[in-house]
Amino acid sequence: MEKTGILYAGKAKTVHTTADRDLMVLEFRDDTTAFDGEKTEALADKGRVNNLFNAFVMQKLQDAGIETHYVKTLSDHESLVRNLKMMPVECVVRNRAAGSLVRRLGVEEGQELTPPVFEFFLKNDQLHDPMINDFHILSFGWATEAQIAEMKSLTFRVNDVLKSLFADGDLILVDYKLEFGVFDGRVVLGDEFSPDGCRLWDAKTMEKMDKDRFRQGLGSVVESYMEVGRRIGVQF
């Protein structure tokens, strides 16, 4: 698929237009950022690893009946995806307490959350992705009531599929974020699912195997991503 231009260049991915207005090329770069871009580094091979990891997970979700924007892998760093009209919200599910939830509520890291906690955040780096709720989304026209309900339903369906997938690899899916868009009137999963956008711990040692390794200076970031992928069946 020939690229015709750059639609958007984010912190770690670039979205390219194509001659087909319904399709785009999603390029995964080696760039890695944390704390709203305050910490930045290029990690060798990370783009390739995240591209292949995301393709594997998206295919698993599609096999489970969850529609995603992923079409096919084009190269080590690029995938063909559908052109969604993205909704500017992030859907976060927390199966265990970690990160900002611990800081906000003063709860113990690792505490199991039953039922899982669902949260909405506005996708806006300049505002540090503030927490929002259904009423903000409706009032500002970011999504309809039906779309909100569908995003919640799909996010929990993803949780069921991926908790089991990672558990089979002796991993705990602590939390994650998803982004959705609209394609032909349907709410469809977009963006990516990789260790950049979730927390994954080793089920036996509780070792952090995700982007917290970069945030906290623990090292072996890409190596940990690859170990997670191998445990669930990703072929690198």
TrEMBL record:
EC class: ligase
Alphabetized CDD domains for the sequence: SAICAR_synt_PurC
Pathway: Purine metabolism; IMP biosynthesis via de novo pathway; 5-amino-1-(5-phospho-D-ribosyl)imidazole-4-carboxamide from 5-amino-1-(5-phospho-D-ribosyl)imidazole-4-carboxylate: step 1/2
Cellular component, GO annotation: cytosol
Residue intervals of the SAICAR synthetase/ADE2 N-terminal domain: 7-231
EC number, UniProt record: 6.3.2.6
HAMAP family xref list: SAICAR_synth
The protein, known as: Phosphoribosylaminoimidazole-succinocarboxamide synthase
Lineage: Bacteria, Pseudomonadati, Pseudomonadota, Gammaproteobacteria, Oceanospirillales
